[in-house]
Specification:
Blueprint lengths: L8 H9 L1 H10 L9 H14 L20 H4 L2 H12 L3 H7 L6 H21 L11 H13 L6 H11 L8 H10 L1 H4 L1
Helix pairs in contact: 2-3, 3-8, 5-7, 6-7, 8-9, 9-10
Length: 191
Amino acid sequence: MLKAKGVPKGKIKLLLDSAEQIRLAWDRDDRGTKGSPLNTLYLLSELEARLLKKWRSRKIRFIPYPKAPTRLSDILPEKVVRQVHEYLYEEPFQDALDELHSGDAADAARERIKNTLETALDVGAYGEQALPAPRGNWLHRQMLGIIRAAVPERVTDSEMTKLFDYLCPCGSEHNRETMKKFRWRHSERNE
């Protein structure tokens, strides 16, 4: 299916073997229609970490009973704010903070940060199910990131289309022209 030179066979095998797991997770998430597709998000992030060799098995640890909050960071940890911002806007939180002092983009950055904080408060209180449903072509952007992690070499649009047809659980046919436009739109952000 993939003829890129220099791509480790182990990465390709891991990628191709995970297709059914991705489909099951996407179905469990009601195909992203009722809220944040958490099962798919966790599976894809774990797969990407494995492909990039940053994965470690998780150990079960003791989680202490929460104490009464005494500081803002007790109810709104910065880690949660950063994660929510990345989910909502697909950009690092630091980028929005940097834009606060850039003049023209300051108002837009302030609005994104405000929305992030409100959503992060809900996530802190009610859990990750408080995240809104993903916007746009979220699943395809995630799949593109996974494929790029597995195959750092440049692959053709036809090969990318075949990989998407095999891996993507969206159920629609992927064609070469659409894939070419999609890759072009997302190339500057990910490369």
